[in-house]
């Protein structure tokens, strides 16, 4: 140390820190591995998949690079892949063009609709995989809202009635987890009662408890064919971005109404909400890494502005560190593959 009194500096640092040097544990790969607090695994992931009518090749969703709309057979293949990779659950979302949409979203109640057919096909071929189905009318309505309109307003009680019916047809088809994403009041209680009334007591409910009116759903709406059709916005039912305490009230109520699991959505801009809910409630709480979060990262990676794999792992780990029991993510197969290669 050319002329520099190194030992003086070292002694001063030892005095100031009491000899506690945090870098000691970070010095080698093995010691970092040894003391890591949060570890992601394939079993933490839920993979959202888009299903479309007809056969043939998977159809790319341009605004979500690496994401496709699959035929029913393609969904069965995806379920096999998920199972091989140790992903425990897939979430199914239907793409419907305008011909299958109407004012009241009646196709949602059809026991032979696209989602129900996909659920049956997957359950027949890969019975060991869990299936989650969204409960909301937006893939089926001509106006793109999650519920039924009355005098131009999304009517809560009218919508809940339809949502209960939608939950029943999906659970009847073999769906394991009902995911009410509609944000109507009282829907968890009424869906639970409706399922129990049909003897579907084992069907779980993962409620989108804190779902915010967000710009980060934009590319999902492309994927399900809702972007062009949505009239207005969803702020009369989805939560306001400025509110945190309200998320606690929403979650408490969904749990009281019978939710088995809850969810925060979107994930990254609402990590604080995830922390608050996981600390407050002793129930599995999931994060939804939404389409917009996915597309944003993919776009930056495509430009070479981010290392895509590294960004994916960093953000997925952040959800777990914040307390999530698991993450719904379009990265699921890619992340599970990367984890497998590392032998995790
Ligand atoms: C439907 C629903 C949406 C998402 C999941 N379920 C969109 C919305 O509420 O407009 C978003 C998923 C994503 O962006 O990845 N209610």
UniProtKB/TrEMBL annotation:
Keywords: Heme biosynthesis, Lyase, Magnesium, Metal-binding, Porphyrin biosynthesis. Pathway: Porphyrin-containing compound metabolism; protoporphyrin-IX biosynthesis; coproporphyrinogen-III from 5-aminolevulinate: step 1/4. It comes from Aureimonas frigidaquae. GO terms for cellular component: cytosol. The active site is at residues 211, 265. Transmembrane segments: none annotated. Belongs to the ALAD family. SMART domains: ALAD. This is Delta-aminolevulinic acid dehydratase. PROSITE patterns: D_ALA_DEHYDRATASE. PANTHER family: DELTA-AMINOLEVULINIC ACID DEHYDRATASE. The keyword Magnesium applies. GO terms for molecular function: porphobilinogen synthase activity; zinc ion binding. The lineage of its organism: Bacteria, Pseudomonadati, Pseudomonadota, Alphaproteobacteria, Hyphomicrobiales. Mg(2+) binds at residue 250. It comes from the Bacteria.
């Amino acid at each position: 140390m050319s002329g520099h009194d190194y030992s003086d500096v070292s002694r001063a640092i030892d005095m100031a820190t009491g000899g506690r040097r945090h870098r000691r544990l970070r010095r080698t790969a093995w010691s970092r591995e040894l003391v890591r607090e949060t570890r992601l695994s394939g079993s933490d992931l839920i993979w959202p998949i888009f299903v479309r009518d007809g056969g043939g090749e998977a159809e790319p969703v341009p605004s979500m690079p690496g994401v496709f709309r699959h035929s029913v057979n393609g969904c069965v293949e995806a379920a096999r892949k998920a199972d091989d990779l140790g992903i425990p659950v897939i979430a199914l979302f239907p793409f419907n063009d305008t011909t299958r949409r109407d004012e009241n979203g009646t196709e949602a109640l059809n026991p032979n609709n696209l989602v129900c057919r996909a659920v049956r096909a997957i359950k027949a071929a890969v019975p060991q995989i869990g299936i989650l189905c969204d409960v909301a009318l937006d893939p089926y309505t001509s106006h793109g809202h999650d519920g039924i309109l009355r005098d131009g307003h999304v009517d809560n009680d009218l919508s809940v009635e339809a949502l209960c019916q939608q939950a029943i047809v999906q659970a009847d088809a073999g769906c394991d987890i009902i995911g009410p994403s509609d944000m109507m009041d009282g829907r968890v209680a009424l869906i639970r009662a409706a399922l129990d009334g049909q003897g579907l007591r084992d069907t779980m409910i993962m409620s989108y408890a804190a779902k915010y009116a967000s710009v980060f759903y934009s590319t999902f709406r492309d994927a399900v064919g809702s972007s062009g059709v949505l009239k207005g916005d969803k702020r009369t039912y989805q939560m306001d971005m400025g509110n945190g305490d309200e998320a606690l009230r929403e979650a408490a109520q969904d749990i009281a109404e019978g939710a088995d699991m809850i969810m925060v959505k979107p994930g990254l801009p609402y990590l604080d909400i995830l922390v608050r809910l996981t600390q407050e409630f002793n129930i599995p709480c999931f994060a939804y890494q939404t389409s917009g979060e996915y597309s944003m990262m993919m776009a930056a990676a495509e430009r070479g502005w981010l290392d895509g794999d590294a960004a994916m792992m960093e953000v997925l780990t952040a959800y777990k560190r914040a307390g999530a029991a698991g993450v719904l993510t379009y990265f699921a197969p890619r992340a599970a593959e990367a984890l497998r290669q590392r032998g995790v």
